[in-house]
Amino acid sequence: MLTLEMTEKWLRELGRVYAEQKEYLTRLDSEIGDADHGINMNRGFSAVCAELDKQSPSSISAALKSTAFVLIRTVGGASGPLYGSFFLDFSKALDGKDTAESADVAAAFQAGLEAIKKRGKAHVGDKTMLDALVPAVEKMEVLAGEGKDIPTMLGGAVEAAEAGLASTIEMVAKKGRASYLGERSKGHQDPGATSSYYLLKAALETWK
């Protein structure tokens, strides 16, 4: 069962993870992008943690909605609008809930995923964050439908995301700055798919 306390732990863990992985994500982005993804994610989630320190949210939805607005305000490039849209629609799916079961969490991830699709207009196979998120959310929905608990559901999702992430290495980018490289984008791991994998892994670590 997901609670407000667990939600806050997830957001703070994301702050720690993106600080720890800042240089790695930036190095991945330097190979096919603007060399700022790690910097941007670290800046955004540092600001999220600072907001949590300043004022405790009143609900799960409020915590996630605040996260969305902070990311949109502080994260540069495409990541701010994409992750901001994800957390905003994620929050809407859990509005009014004091706790959330696995089916609620899966539905919230699905809502966030649809927001990214709508804003980014990308598809699986385009070498983007969707290559990690789509298989992960699909796995969540299957496991939630089988009545699995949140840790089991997220464990399956993280495995699916990791496989999706690995698949981006041999893809040719069709979206974003990496698409300008054409065939030269092949052989490089997508930084957005990597940060999405970290987002899911952090949820597993803090919600198990």
UniProtKB/TrEMBL annotation:
One of its GO terms (biological process) is glycerol catabolic process. Transmembrane segments: none annotated. SUPFAM superfamilies: DhaL-like. The keyword Secreted does not apply. Residues 5-205 form the DhaL domain. SMART domains: Dak2. GO terms for molecular function: glycerone kinase activity. PROSITE patterns: DHAL. InterPro entries: DhaK_L_YcgS (IPR012737), DhaL_dom (IPR004007), DhaL_dom_sf (IPR036117), Dihydroxyacetone_Kinase (IPR050861). GO terms for cellular component: cytosol. Coiled coil: none annotated. The keyword Nucleotidyltransferase does not apply. Keywords: Kinase, Transferase. NCBIfam families: dha_L_ycgS. This is Dihydroxyacetone kinase, L subunit. It comes from Sediminispirochaeta smaragdinae (strain DSM 11293 / JCM 15392 / SEBR 4228) (Spirochaeta smaragdinae).
